[in-house]
Amino acid sequence: MAELTTKGLGKLLARQGILVAFVVFMIAFALANPRFIAIDNISGVIRSSAILGVMALGVTFVVIGGNLDLSVGSMMSFSTIVVLDLHDKIGPSLAIPAMFAMTLALGGFIGFLVGYLKLNSLIVTLGMLSAIHGLTLTWSGGKNMDIADKEGTWFSVFGQGSIVGIPVPILMFALLAVVLSIILGKTPFGRKVYAVGGNGTAATFSGIPRARVVFMTYLFSAFCVATAGLIQASRSLGSQNTVGQGLELEVLAAVILGGASLLGGSGTVFKTVIGVLILGFIQNGLLLMGLAFYVQYVVTWIIIILAVWLDIAAKRGRLWSPIA
């Protein structure tokens, strides 16, 4: 009986361990500071997580397709700086589509290198991380960007506005999550993404255009990054040119926490949203406990390691390697 209980507990932790850990964290934070479960705090956490969440939705497509995208942080910096700069030059009505077009062009270029030229996604996106950062600094001249007339622009609605009392960033995050969830779970394209990520060779022999599918996943990722950049720029109406630096690791952590496999072929948009909220509430809880903000980086690293371990454990059906 004890052995069966141990095996059952091991399987539970292997498959749902991160959710168990999340519940433990939530209870601990609530006991440490009752304000943690206050409505305004919960709303604030979700709102502050919207930018990370929107980016994670796009990366979910890339990861399920069997690849990585480490360029999203620097790409978000680029999109934020570009739309702020163009806002004063050509107006927000033209600046927004221009920024989306440029960001999609960057995503398409990455998709071409990974999908059609079949280059390693880790190497390509790691290189593009530096390249896009350099492009951002070149565009901005190494300076931060601010909108000149912050009081007379409707541009602030994306980051500061609300509809029926719900902040617009939360609504954009939720709407995009619903649309992308339908695309991934209910359309032929979504099934092709799972097939390519699960077994690319078999998908190719089945007649699925593997290169095109991979290319499209990076376009989805770039679109989500541009949306996140729009929210970020609108929220403060100004930005540092390194605003997205380091976000690629948090985005990847959220996606993997949500159950997407680094090996590709598994994951859902809904679970990615859960992963984003897990990170957001853990970071908020640490701050309410009085820990310095830089402790979040250490915790994020621990969570990534834990998520990867649990992901591998779920695949082999046990927490520990059979060799150990």
What does this structure look like?
Keywords: Cell inner membrane, Cell membrane, Membrane, Transmembrane, Transmembrane helix, Transport. It is a multi-pass membrane protein. This is Sugar ABC transporter permease. With 324 residues, this protein is mainly alpha-helical. It has one domain. Helices cover 74% and strands 2% of the residues. It has 13 helices and 4 strands. A two-stranded antiparallel sheet has the order 1-4. Strands 2-3 form a two-stranded antiparallel sheet. Strand 2 and strand 3 form a beta hairpin. Helix 1 packs antiparallel against helix 13, helix 4 packs antiparallel against helix 10 and helix 11 packs parallel to helix 13. The protein is globular, with a radius of gyration of 20 Å. It starts with a helix and ends in an 8-residue tail after the last helix. 46% of the residues are buried. The model has no long low-confidence stretch (mean pLDDT 87).
